[in-house]
Design the sequence.
């Protein structure tokens, strides 16, 4: 079991979407949607607390695996993330990704929070800081227009991230409490 | 990096010129900025104010840099709430860069002095305004017209 109390919010991204909470919820849990805004990744999620969660590449390889930490449709979804493959990246500690959905005027406010249990260096956080605006911008476009913002959007680790991950995995600061 | 600071990035399916026009055209601004628009001639050194049609002024300052259609820097002070105005001037930098068939718009808002309320206020405001701007350019309508 994951001890949520150990995790602190590090990156937050808020956007407002012309949709209903149900529609936004659906876009978060349905692979037909996620493939169009999440770098081609298909979401696979067991719809219950403790259920399995994965993000899969188009060829079926697992990119992220984890579990459903909170399942409150259509208001709050929290999943744990462990990176698979990608050498050193796979040895990083688990992180949590939480989506909060609330009605705000005529729109819906979607807040994504990425939380970590250790003093994660800025160069590693940059991966999420650069990725989330692309992912969630694509989600908003897809919901509002029915089309992908940029089909086949490419993304890789930002400069300095690979080195920072290598250093962190060598030193394992998360073991030092 | 120690200055109080807020950064927001949004990707918009549009052209650099259309995005620039949306950031600087009064009639377009009013649609996504909850009725507010900029009063300025956009020349470096010129005064700038964010106003409503009824004459109320939300913010004021001056244009520091204007490089269409890529970069805009405004020296900016809040005129709405005395406690926020008391935190002094900020610097708002807007940059537009093409990114894989979309436009990357980055807003960086940095306070010149110390304080927490100005950054808190813009952290709440920018995501609303820029979500509305993205909707307007991509769909022709804003996500919502009234501030919730």
Sequence:
């Amino acid at each position: 079991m994951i001890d949520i109390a150990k995790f602190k919010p590090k990156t937050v991204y808020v956007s407002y979407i012309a949709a209903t909470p149900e529609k936004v919820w659906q876009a978060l849990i349905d692979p037909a949607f996620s493939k169009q805004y999440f770098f081609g990744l298909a979401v696979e999620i067991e719809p219950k607390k403790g259920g399995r969660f994965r993000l899969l590449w188009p060829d079926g390889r697992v990119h992220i695996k984890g579990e459903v930490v909170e399942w409150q449709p259509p208001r709050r979804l929290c999943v744990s993330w462990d990176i698979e493959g990608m050498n050193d990246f796979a040895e990083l500690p688990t992180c949590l990704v939480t989506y909060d959905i609330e009605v705000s005027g005529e729109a819906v406010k979607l807040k994504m929070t990425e939380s970590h249990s250790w003093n994660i260096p800025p160069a590693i956080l940059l991966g999420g800081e650069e990725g989330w605006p692309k992912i969630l911008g694509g989600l908003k476009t897809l919901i509002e227009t029915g089309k992908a913002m940029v089909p086949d959007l490419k993304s890789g680790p930002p400069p300095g991230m690979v080195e920072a991950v290598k250093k962190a995995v060598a030193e394992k600061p998360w073991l030092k409490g | 990096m120690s200055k109080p600071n807020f950064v927001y990035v949004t990707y918009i399916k549009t052209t650099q010129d259309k995005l620039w026009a949306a950031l600087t055209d009064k009639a377009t601004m009013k649609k996504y900025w909850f009725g507010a628009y900029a009063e300025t001639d956009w020349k470096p050194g010129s005064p700038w104010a964010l106003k409503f049609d009824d004459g109320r002024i939300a913010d004021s300052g001056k244009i520091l840099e204007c490089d269409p259609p890529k970069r805009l820097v405004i020296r900016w002070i809040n005129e709405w709430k005395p406690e926020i105005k008391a935190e002094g001037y900020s610097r708002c930098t807007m940059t537009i860069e093409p990114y894989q068939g979309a436009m990357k718009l980055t807003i960086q808002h940095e306070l010149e002095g110390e304080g927490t309320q100005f950054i808190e206020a813009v952290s709440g405001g920018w995501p609303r305004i820029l979500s509305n701007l993205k909707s307007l350019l991509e769909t022709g309508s804003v996500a919502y017209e009234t501030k919730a």
In short: The mean pLDDT of chain B is 95.
